[in-house]
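Response to reviewer comment R2.3. The reviewers asked that we include at least one raw input/output pair. We reproduce the pair for Synaptic vesicle glycoprotein 2A here without editing.
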Amino acid sequence: MEDGYQNRTAFIKGAKDIAKEVKRQASKKVGRSVDRMSDEYSKRSYSRFEEDDDDDYPMQGSQDGGYYRGDSQAANDDEGGHSDSTEGHDEDDEIYEGEYQGIPRADSGKGSLAGGPGSVGAGAQQFKDIGVSEAERRKDQEELAQQYETILQECGHGKFQWTLYFVLGLALMADGVEIFVVGFVLPSAEKDMCLSEPNKSMLGLIVYFGMMVGAFLWGALADRIGRRQSLLISLSINSVFSFFSSFVQGYSTFLFCRLLSGVGIGGSIPIVFSYYSEFLAQEKRGEHLSWLCMFWMIGGIYASAMAWAIIPHYGWSFQMGSAYQFHSWRVFVLVCAFPSVAAIAALSAMPESPRFYLENGKHDEGWMILKQVHDTNMRAKGYPERVFSVTTIKTVKQMDELVDTGTDTPVWQRYRLKIMSLSQQMRKNILACFSPEYKRTTFMLMAVWFTMSFSYYGLTVWFPDMIKYIQKQEYESKTKTFTKERVEHVTFNFTLENQVHRQGHYFNDKFLNLKMKSMVFEDSVFEECYFEDITSTHTFFRNCTFIASLFYNTDLFKYRFVNCKLVNSTFLHNKEGCMLDFSDDFNNAYMIYFVNFLGTLAVLPGNIVSALLMDKIGRLRMLAGSSVISCVSCFFLMFGNSESGMIALLCLFGGISIASWNALDVITVELYPSDKRTTAFGFLNALCKLAAVLGISIFQSFVGITKALPILFAAGALAAGSFLATKLPETRGQVLQ
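Raw output as returned:
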């Protein structure tokens, strides 16, 4: 038996070598026609071998498609469950598109040539073959879906899935952290980089733009090169640019690094849910995908806790002169890259999705991974003697789409052609989501994703801004005003805070080593005054006159003097950059972190409820029901007139709406086939980020003006989303397409 098998392997290798040599020589001499003849020769060689193999080594079972070992054969297998499906595979051999791959199977010899290159009806036959191939591919996908579900049932749910759960959870946690990073560092970064209001707004939105591009790009790429590989690349980009952003000093470079960091992490959500779903059996899928959503919450809690512990501690910083400053908020940015780095390290030990391999015709690789899942779970459950009984798995017929790059082609041109081919395949996959079969589903999901994201992100950013506005109003109500005061020969060496001085006259006064916070001087005169070691925050001089005054080592820059006259006045050794003083916003910083911590923690009950009920009441009921309750809860926002009231309403809204997000993630995964799953999910998640940008921009514009319009916008969007959600098909109890 072994000698026969070695002869069989040698024959395959020889046929492959002959076919490749004929093709190489023919391409130089006579062109494409001989290329087609060499392809025919190669295929006939394999067909000849397959016929011999079917006679000498029958292993496929009965005509009804037996995919499993017979009882007698299974009893004689060793403990490792070694399958004939993996024999004869030489890992050192190069595999080329269109060549023989893997072991022979009963359905592998059906694709012989219909006619030679000189056939009269070659063109018509070619189009006919394309139609037949597409029909065969569709049939193969349906058969694979059914068999794959049966195999997952045999593999069981155990140690392997739980290990993958925590690994992919780290990637999802990194996405949750990324959302909060800029919001937490903005109060400190705006002073460190002297940011204007437009620059602050752009810095707050840039991560969403990056995640929008990343979701679209990595989602489409994961259907072509694999879930694991795409996720590793995207997380690596996120880690690298998160690390760089903690050290760069300029606003533009920091903005660029955060943009690329967002592009990297944008692939996390569409890939993670698709990847994990392909290891879950039907009855476990909804529940465990909902449990996976908890890591997004954990990411928010991690970011809040790290900000609370690091940013207010100004001692965690150093500076090299006044040009390079590394304050504690930069330490926080660095620490926030840890979940992404940990996810990369853990993901390196996990296999690719076997469903992706089988969809792309890689039978042996998919079989080995499923066997690994089975053996890992059985050993953990105390049944190491159980053997993986599957011998052959249905694979999907492949359509040749790769560009042939000969050995004479320059390297740069080969890569260019490969990138162009990959781009065309990704574009084709995206357009397939709008084909007649999926067009209605795609447009309905687009509407649901957009309305939910618009209302959720708009309100969650509007809440903290409203809290800040309430705090600002309370602070301004305590402002002290001084009018027409005359101060002479006085030394100020204490903190000046929250005061307005109008039409004052200051003669020969000294302002030494003090802090000015929220100080405003209007229509005042400073004559022969001396300012030294001044640190200021929200301090301005309007329509003032300075006569023979000296400024030494202060941060009173030109933009703080509005319509002022400087007569014989001098500035010496001005401080560079915007100096940070954490004590100014110490209490406010803690309040921001505490509010976000509570808001993130509030989604825990919603996560638990959705996980326990997802497979019991169905995805649509969960999605529509949670959206309706969220819509109703919006009207309670009208009663949030205090700081504590707004925090309580924030927690209520977050806890209810999270169930909608979990159901939407699950139903999006299950409505698309495996070869389009991450592409469709990535496109919808990119639309989600676009809606988030619009929601944040619109809702922020109403802060301090009115509460009615943001509430009506959010409630209307949620009502529309819940109505459209009821029109989607229910996916509970269905096999993964």
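The mean pLDDT is 77. The radius of gyration is 33 Å. Further pairs are available on request from the corresponding author.
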